[in-house]
């Protein structure tokens, strides 16, 4: 190796160490900068003729790509769980802690306790007032919780709109940065631009779960977890959200635009062609996925549970149960029941035993007054043991009997004599034996000779008694936001005791208070599948007291579960962040150690240059 070669090699070494010192300086200066990835210098041997040195040192970011991709996935999951946990916490506050003074179950208990006191002293004006006060507080609480649920849904709707706008902005801003990386516009390399691009992608992952890949030219490609292409050098879709200004209990999502009462997200490609991103399940995680789930499922079920409580409260106190009269027609046995008095939404139940086995099953026939109300909505459907069927009463009793016959199929004979309905089985050896036929009309007056009364009414429908009608939409949907005390009962609280005027019920008669208390705390009732207890879509039975306790306790458990899930996800996110920062975060001590190494290398190369100079001077003096 000649002196010239040695000089060239040392000079190239100086250039490499200078670049390294510059990178160390940049790392130290950005030690606290969020999103900054530590740099390093990649030195490549260069051989030119007989000269061996360092060729164009390259600045590289020091990070683990696999861990970075995992970090973006965990970020999406953390945004999903955090959004749900926050909403569940708000929902739990609305219901109140089980047993607390303002909790829904406590207010229900106060109502039943006031009825117990009235039963013990029916003539007491104070006790009657206490019953109405407790009932009013319970109704007010149902309305306020229902309003709170819809407020949370409106917040979710607005949150979806804001998130969709931000996603579009991020995809647009990604276009410019990505193009600069591909074109290599930065004079000192693309490390800073790549940091900027990663920060954009990281924020994007908070809203939607994504998968990324980098092309050989440095361009990035992004797809959602569902496989929808979001970015490929430029945005491949633009999202549009037709946000609704105010959501109510009837505002629900549907794939049919004519039935949809909430906003949906349309994804339009560069040609203007679009698809419904919610129907396509594009947003499975991230903040947008959580908000969609809350708006369309979680909070809708919470409203359904409140509506079920309100509906059961009203029906339990106002619906009469008229058992059919046993009849025999030859070898066949069955029952007669009068359908007079049934109103839209009222029902007739047919109970029967299946042989062999003896399992009891039921048909529930629900009155509708127009074929336009059929079929009944999914929330009204029963299960294999209780099939709920809508019957159009507009055609008269004979048409009603014919519709019921078609619904139950062979094994029963259904006929009518005027308004009296008869159902009989096939007699001895029948596979289905009729064991009960019950009509359940709603009592509309406070004094009708029976203990039932319209204690609660639908304030949104002219203070009429709740019948569960499906005319013009299901009356049960949103009923919790409309339930109120019957104003006629408030005007004359003696009707809490007096159920007959001729002859007049004695003021000290405990019959009606006892009946009301038993209906709330002892009577077994069927709850619709809309309540979704334990994730089940089947109907269930129990007392109203049990229903209220299950709803309040269930919300508390769901809130705790959401909080635990979020805590676990945050731990997972922190673990991945820690792994990512091990490589990418600046460690000042490590940089100082590297600086010392570079300083030694710089001094060594400088010493080589000085030595070559001395030797050249010697040669020149010869």
Mind summarizing the main beta sheet? 5 strands, mixed
Number of helices: 11
How would you classify the helix and strand content by structural class? alpha+beta
Task: Kindly provide the radius of gyration, computed on alpha-carbon positions and rounded to a whole number of angstroms.
Answer: 37 Å
Shape: elongated
The largest sheet has its strands arranged as 9-17-12-13-14
User: Could you list the spans in which at least 5 consecutive residues all have pLDDT below 50?
Assistant: none
Mean pLDDT: 88
Distance between the termini: 21 Å
Percent of residues in β-strands: 15-25%
Please identify the oligomeric state.
single chain
Number of strands: 22
Query: What is the helical fraction, as a range of percent?
Result: 40-55%
Give your account of this protein's structure:
The protein is of the alpha+beta class and 622 residues long. Among the domains are: 3-62 and 586-621; 67-86 and 156-306, no CATH class; 322-440, no CATH class. 46% of the residues lie in helices and 20% in strands. It contains 11 helices and 22 strands. It has helices at residues 3-29, 65-95, 104-120, 125-183, 191-207, 286-318, 397-408, 487-491, 511-521, 544-584, 588-621, and strands at residues 39-48, 51-61, 210-214, 220-224, 229-232, 237-241, 265-269, 274-276, 322-323, 325-329, 332-338, 347-354, 359-368, 386-392, 412-417, 420-425, 432-440, 456-458, 464-465, 483-485, 525-527, 540-542. The strands form 7 sheets. A 5-stranded mixed beta sheet has the order 9-17-12-13-14, with helices on one face. Strands 10-11-16-15 form a 4-stranded antiparallel beta sheet, with helices on one face. Helix 4 runs antiparallel to helix 5 (191-207). The longest helix has 59 residues, at 125-183. The two termini are 21 Å apart. The relative contact order is 0.14. The mean pLDDT is 88.
